[in-house]
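# nightly structure sweep
# worker-07 picked up a monomer target from the shared queue
# config: single-sequence mode, recycle default, output format = structure tokens
# input follows
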Amino acid sequence: MFVVTELLSMPSESVPLPDTTPPASALNGAGAQPVAPVQAQKRTLIVSHDPAFPAASGSDLRNYRNAEAAARFGPVCLVSVRPKIAMNAPGPLIRVEGLSIEGEPRTASIGWWRSRAESRISRSALTRLETLAREFRPDTIIVEGVGLFKLLRPLRPLAAQLILDMHNVESDLAGQIRRLSAKRSAAAFSVRYLERKALSLVDKVWVCSKLDRQKLMMLSRHKIPIDIVPNGIPQAVEGSGQLPAEPSTSNGFPVILFIGHLAYPPNVDAAQRLASVILPRIRNALPGARLVLAGRTPRPEVQALARLPGVELIGDPADVAPLLSSAHLTIVPLTAGGGTRIKILEAMATGVPVIATPIAAEGLDLVENDELLLSDTDETLAEMAIGLCLDPDRRARQRLRAYQAVWARFGPQAIHDAVRDGLGPNGAAV
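# output follows
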């Protein structure tokens, strides 16, 4: 049995950081978009399947952060295929609209054929979108992913610039998920075809990381600019420039947090391995260790994990900030994934050390053994967690360096710069 008395009795103090994070005035929150100069204004229409405001998923967070950044350059309209949720707009330069109305009669969908990778879009929704676009007169239209493929041709003549925002390279992600869930293999069959067709219809593409750009380069048959617009840190407006103190150990040590959509197959697989393999190994050395699984719509197999020793399930949390502030560690044992891993950014931005599989941190370009710890095996992930918990100096260094890195590269100013460049004429063509 390891002795942890000295570790648990250490005081937690805030660690001052060098001035590398943006000042509070540069952080752009809801209702606080700076008004762009009249001569520089660009009108941007962002089309998504689900409402981006208020954000309820990683995709929503990306769409909304991009809207916030674009609002620095002119008016933005966030429009969703599904009915809008919020009655009020998030700020004076961001307008929110929905193309469907709750309770309206169902109408035929556009297109004579639709693959499983595509979202259903009704003819009435398309008519409303075309009317809205003509009224809003956007300079740029950004469409969320190949799920909305059938909107690309109708929208093509309605703006000078049409951008496909690929939150993931879906064909690559579908191949990964197929290994975890045979039920999804049919969707993987047509998604590569959709991606290639989509690339032939748009002016440029946004992706989340250099790695996704490389994957798309191998897929594309067209010379098209590809801009990297990473996902931003959720709740970024709350960044203070100072590393938060470690939480108290009065309710167990370590408290291990895993946040994610708990009906998504890669997250379900990760939660099961965390609860049944990784946590028991950690508890052999640190009996007070607890695992908190938190996320939307937990599947029955995830709900069953709450019956295991030391495991707590929080379904559909209203706010993850209190969970992050009480966590000592997050372990992300994903074996499939794409885009930018928001759960890792969120943890690092609040001072929670991260231990993960390489694929979980893929595309983030973080420094291994400095800003995070990586391993492919559950056994080594558990050993790393134990070692980090028993080495307070190393844990403090990792917390600090990860915090600095994530705010510098995924904070509001970084997203602002990426969106500015993405809306402009330049891009890396392939």
